[in-house]
Write a structure and sequence with these properties.
BilAc:Na_symport/Acr3; mainly alpha; 318 residues; Arsenic resistance protein; cell membrane; transport; transmembrane; Na+/H+ antiporter like fold
């Protein structure tokens, strides 16, 4: 079973791109696929549950002991990266909805497949894995503050509190709570361990399923969102180049060794796009623009990861 999981993780980029192609062909050949929109939230809830199940919530204390690494990780993701995002958004974008969507996706550090890519890129993936609960908690606390700082009073025109809280509760808080319960069950029961092991195979297929459903839902409406996607693509490319350099610089300034520094570079570059998607969908008038620009960021990022696992792996070599 562990071998299957390893194979899925190592081939996840190919799986995700295959999912995108399948979804695109389906949306073009089968009319009325916008009805798939109703399946987005259930698919997201399951994907987030199995994703959170891989986050070692019981190891939260262990991550807190790595003080220098944690300090550099938090400074990179919640001070330096927001400054970079604010600069890029201010330079590239004028439309408030686009600014909101890009900020949602670029201000949230990844908590799932970044660990796999970090491992492939010769980074200290164990440190990054232990830190994922802190990254998840911190981004949920900091996102509202960042949006308020960048958008000011305008943010109230786009985010209605009730649907946002509903999305956060049922698509993030509840899956996170169930994942924590499952982890405790697995720790105390052989049956729980077995169930958890089987669910451990699900994150990559579940993520591929979400990509398929979102693209099938959005593609028929993409005509109205295509201009928006074209506007954000240069920003995503600039971010993909600059973010890992920022993370590496902070880590080296903190005196971390090469493998730990690579982990922070990967974390700085890799975003939590599909975890943030349910919050974006709770914004009135989000479809099709916000799902389209979030999926666009995912595709740019997956291509970038193929470069990172070769380039970042060489950083710090003597």
């Amino acid at each position: 079973m562990e071998n299957i999981r390893s194979q899925l993780e190592e081939k996840q980029v190919a799986i995700y791109f295959a999912a995108v192609v399948i979804a695109a062909i389906t949306a073009l050949l089968i009319p009325g696929t916008t009805a798939a929109e109703s399946a987005i939230n259930p698919a997201l809830a399951f994907m987030l549950f199995v994703t959170f199940l891989q986050v070692p919530l019981v190891k939260l204390g262990q991550a807190l002991k790595q003080l220098r690494f944690m300090a550099a990780l938090l400074i990179a993701n919640f001070i330096v990266i927001p400054l970079l995002v604010f600069a890029l958004v201010g330079f590239f974008l004028e439309d408030t909805m686009l600014r909101l969507g890009v900020m949602l996706v670029l201000l949230a550090p990844c908590i799932d497949y970044v660990v796999t890519f970090a491992h492939l890129g010769r980074a200290d993936a164990r440190l990054l894995l232990a830190a994922t609960p802190i990254l998840l908690i911190a981004q949920m606390l900091m996102l509202p503050l960042y949006l308020r700082l960048m958008l000011g009073a305008e943010v109230a025109n786009y985010i209605e509190v009730a649907p946002f809280i509903h999305a956060f509760t049922w698509l993030i808080a509840v899956p996170l709570f169930l994942a924590a319960i499952m982890q405790l069950f697995a720790k105390r029961s052989a049956t729980g361990t077995s169930i958890s092991n089987y669910l451990g195979l699900a994150p990559v297929p579940a993520t591929a399923l979400v990509l398929i459903i979102v693209i099938i839902s959005v593609l028929p409406q993409l005509g109205t969102a295509l201009t928006s996607v074209q506007q954000v693509l240069p920003l995503y490319v600039a971010y993909a180049v600059l973010a890992p350099l920022c993370g590496w610089w902070i880590a080296r300034k903190a005196g971390l060794e090469a493998a730990s520094s690579r982990a922070i570079a990967f974390s700085s570059a890799t975003r939590n796009s599909l975890v943030i998607l349910p919050l974006a969908l709770a914004i009135p008038g989000a479809i099709p623009v916000l799902p389209a620009i979030i999926v666009a960021q995912t595709l740019v990022e997956l291509i970038s990861e193929l470069v990172y696992v070769r380039v970042i792996a060489r950083w710090g070599q003597k």
